[in-house]
């Protein structure tokens, strides 16, 4: 469904944003990962034998220093030997899949972290070549190879290596360019470093460059965020992810190093969001959904307009795959039958891999109801609408009856004009796009009747 991006912000008001600013899952999976439990005999990886296209995710948990806002699974170290040993484990884990996954082409490879560029060039090469011995790695523009990089430490020469290895997308963690904010989060990075890397990535033929920005950080102001955005607009990345900082010091130890009194309040964060959205729209960026923006020519924006976006643990994508194999500590995999997740801690993950080549400790076997709701949630997140007849066929009964309770939960969002329906479709309205996860959550069978306040990040 195509929607006019210029209409997106028009209907947003601080009152509306604050009404739906509570905690809510981000739906990179359904059910969400916090539902995962010991698999007790279930083996969702068996469905890998029947796939036609595969995605790979590799988690590199190492970082040189701690960013105080961080909620990722990471290990702060300057001992490079840890990374070399870990690489041995990753390749051993990859080999565990050798006889369990159909020889399907890999259409997507994503290196996330931590800091994937913590690995030196020769280990990056060892990793990708090692994966190539197990999986059918594709090449060229038909595949999406992406890497998250830390602009503080990435050397322009590494971009040459990455291109040689097939990487064509680069994601740079910017967060905010203001010195006060950077000091408060312990992440000092100059615009010049980012500009140099952006230029080098373009010269080396990276097809898409993405920046991560965060609003709601300590010592951040609306004016300061605006100045960061002005600089970002000059560099014109193809994609921008604008995340909301969720201050959850009781859950994330690093965040205890942030003085809570320096974090902006809810109304200030709403003002930041509105200012950022306005700046991005004025610069021609299209809102894809869930924090993500792209220039109109970028393939994600094109796919969004054509109703062809997909979503996985890395966010939105244009590359549909039947399954994802996640390698490394805490990595999550999925197949048509369900999800499985690796042990989080480096020592436990490495121990399990050395012992048995496999480190999953929990997951989820999908039931028929899960599959139906997974379809509903992902359609809403990616296509912003539900074809009621299609869903009725899957449910084996009329949509309005099957989802009577879910639709009742949606009533306030109908009343606020965020979602609408007729006989054939349930649709998210242009103003409703900012509340996609609130809308999807009405169909989450596991969410209702329990407290979400401390479990999920707040929408604002
Ligand atoms: S934000 Fe990124 S670089 Fe900073 S500690 Fe977390 S994972 Fe490491």
TrEMBL record:
It holds the Pfam family HemN_C. The keyword Magnesium does not apply. Binds 1 [4Fe-4S] cluster. The cluster is coordinated with 3 cysteines and an exchangeable S-adenosyl-L-methionine. GO terms for cellular component: cytoplasm. It is an enzyme of class 1 (oxidoreductase). S-adenosyl-L-methionine 2 binds at residues 69-71, 114-115, 175, 187, 212, 246. NCBIfam families: hemN (TIGR00538). Belongs to the anaerobic coproporphyrinogen-III oxidase family. Monomer. This is Coproporphyrinogen-III oxidase. The lineage of its organism: Bacteria, Pseudomonadati, Pseudomonadota, Gammaproteobacteria, Cellvibrionales.
């Amino acid at each position: 469904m195509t929607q006019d991006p210029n209409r997106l912000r028009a209907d947003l008001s601080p009152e509306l944003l604050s009404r739906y600013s509570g905690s809510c899952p981000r739906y990179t999976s359904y059910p969400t990962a916090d539902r995962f439990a010991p698999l007790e005999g279930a083996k969702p990886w068996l469905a890998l034998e029947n796939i036609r296209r595969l995605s790979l995710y590799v988690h590199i948990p190492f970082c040189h220093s701690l960013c105080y806002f961080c909620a990722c699974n990471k290990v702060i170290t300057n001992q490079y030997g840890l990374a070399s040993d870990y690489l041995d484990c990753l390749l051993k884990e990859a080999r565990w899949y050798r006889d369990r996954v159909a020889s399907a082409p890999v259409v997507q490879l994503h290196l996330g972290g931590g800091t994937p560029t913590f690995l030196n060039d020769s280990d990056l090469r060892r990793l990708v070549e090692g994966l190539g011995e197990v999986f059918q790695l594709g090449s060229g523009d038909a595949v999406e190879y992406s890497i998250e990089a830390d602009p503080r430490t990435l050397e322009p020469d590494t971009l040459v290596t990455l291109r040689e290895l097939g990487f064509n997308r680069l994601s740079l963690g910017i967060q905010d360019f203001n010195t006060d904010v950077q000091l408060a989060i312990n992440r000092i990075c100059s615009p010049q470093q980012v500009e140099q890397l952006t230029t080098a990535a373009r010269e080396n033929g990276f097809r898409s460059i993405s920046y991560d920005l965060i609003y709601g950080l300590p010592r951040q102001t609306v004016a300061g965020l605006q100045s960061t955005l002005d600089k970002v607009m000059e560099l014109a990345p193809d994609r921008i992810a604008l995340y909301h900082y969720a201050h959850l010091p009781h859950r994330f130890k690093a965040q205890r190093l942030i003085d809570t009194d320096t974090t902006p309040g809810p109304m200030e964060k709403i003002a930041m969001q509105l200012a950022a959205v306005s700046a991005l729209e004025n610069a021609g960026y299209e809102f894809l959904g869930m924090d993500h923006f792209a220039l109109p020519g970028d393939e994600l924006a094109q796919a969004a307009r054509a109703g062809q976006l997909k979503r996985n643990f890395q966010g939105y994508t244009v590359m549909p795959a039947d399954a994802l194999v996640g390698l490394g500590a805490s990595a999550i995999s999925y197949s048509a039958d369900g999800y499985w997740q690796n042990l989080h801690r480096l020592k436990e993950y490495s121990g399990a891999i050395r012992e048995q080549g496999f480190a999953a400790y929990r997951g989820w076997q999908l039931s028929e109801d899960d599959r139906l709701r997974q379809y509903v949630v992902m359609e809403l997140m990616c296509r912003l609408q539900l074809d009621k007849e299609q869903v009725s066929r899957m449910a084996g009964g009329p949509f309005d009856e099957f989802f009577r309770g879910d639709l009742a939960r949606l009533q306030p969002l109908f009343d606020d004009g965020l979602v609408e329906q007729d006989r054939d479709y349930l649709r998210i309205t242009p103003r409703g796009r900012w509340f996609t996860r609130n809308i999807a959550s009405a169909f989450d069978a596991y969410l209702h009747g329990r407290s979400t306040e401390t479990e999920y990040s707040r929408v604002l």
